[in-house]
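Protein 1 of 2
SEQ + STRUCT:
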Amino acid sequence: MKTQTIQTVLLLICINLMLFSCQDISTHNESPYEGPPKDHIISVDRAQEMYDAYSQRRVPILQKYEDSIAADGSKFTPTRYAEYDLKTIKQYIAYIEHEAKEANVEIQTLRFYLSNYPASDKFPNGDVVKFPKRNSFFVVPTMAYEGKNVGFYLEDIDGVYTALPINRNGLRGKDENKMRDEPQGNVNEAGFFISAAPTLQGGGTTSIIFNEGNITPPPAGANDFGDDN
C-alpha cells in the first residue's frame, strides 16, 4: 500500500512537471507584461493635435507640389497612415531578433525613416511600385558600432553571417578593404543603400528593412482623427 502511494505521488509530480514544461515552451517567446512603456504613450488629445498640425502645415504643401507636376491634371491626396496587422509585426520582431542572433549582434533600436515611393510604375530592378508618389516609411534595425548607433544588414562573408553598417557617410576616411579583412566579431563595413554596396537582397546579402504596408489614403469613415478627402 505504501509503495502504491509513493508511485501515485511520483506520477502526479511527473504530470505536473510535464504540464509546466509544455506551458513554458508555448509562452517563452512572449515578452513579460511590464505596463505601458515609460514616456512613450500619448493621450488621444495630443495625437489629435499632432495630426491636425500635420494637416495644416504639411498636407497643403504636398498637395500643391504634387498637383503642380501632375501631367494628367490629377489631384494628389497625401497618405495619412500606414497599418500592419499585429501578427506581421510580431513576425518581423521575431525575424530580426533571429537574424541578429545568427550574426552575433544585438539590436539597439528600430529607426523609422520617412520616405516616398517614386512617381513610376516600376523600380529600377523591375519590381512593381505599389503606391506611386505616396508617402511612406521604412524601418531599419540598428546596432552599436564604434560608439555609434547604426542601421545594418547582413551578409555571408567566407561562411560567417556578418552584420554590416549601411551608412558609409560616418565611415569615410577609413581603409574599407583593410576593415573588411579585420572584422570585429561578426561586424564589418559596408556602403550605404547604393553605389559600392552590393544589392541588399540576393547575392548572399539579407535585408531586414521593413516596409510594404497598407498606406493608401483612408476611405471615408476609416480615419481616426479626421477625414481629409
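Protein 2 of 2
SEQ + STRUCT:
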Amino acid sequence: MVQLTRIYTKSGDKGKTGLGNDERVYKNSARIEAIGEVDETNAAVGWALEFCAGNLKNLLLRIQNDLFDVGADLCVPEPAETSTTHRLTVTSAQVDYLEHQIDELNARLSPLTSFVLPGGSKASAALHLARTVSRRAERGIVTLSLAEKLNPEIMRYLNRLSDLLFVMARFVNTEEGQGDVLWVPGANR
C-alpha cells in the first residue's frame, strides 16, 4: 500500500522526476507526458462521474482505479527479459471488461445515422470530454511506444476506454430522453 507522509520532496525542482525503478528523467520526457495524459484522463473521468449515477457511476469508479494501474504500469519501464522484477501491469482481462461493457451498452442503443456532436446532457458532455482526453492519452502512448517497449495492453486499454466513453455518452442521452445530437453536414452554409 502507498503511504505518503510528505507531499513535496523538492527532488523535482531541477526539472526531473523519479520513475518507479528509481531512474530520474526529465518531466517533459515522452514517458512522463504519457503518464500525465493518463492522469488528465482520470481527472476528466472524475468530472464525468459527478453527473452519473448507479451502474455508470460504479463503472467510472472502476475505470479510475484501472487508470491508476495504467499509470503504475507506465511508471516502471519494461524490465529486461531475464528480470525477476514484479511490477503492476495492465492485463487483457481489464481490456476484455471494457469490451463487455461496450457491447452491453451499445446493444441498447439505436444504430448511428450520422456523426454525434458532443453534448445533449451534462453527463453526456462530460463523458465526451473524458473521451477526447483519453484519445490524447492514447496518442501519447503511441508516441512513447515508438521509442520504448511498452506493455501492449496499455494501448489496447486506452483505445477501448475512449470507445466505452463514447457509448456511455450516447447511452446517457438516450436514458435521459435527450437522444443523440447529430451532425448535420453543411447546416450553416
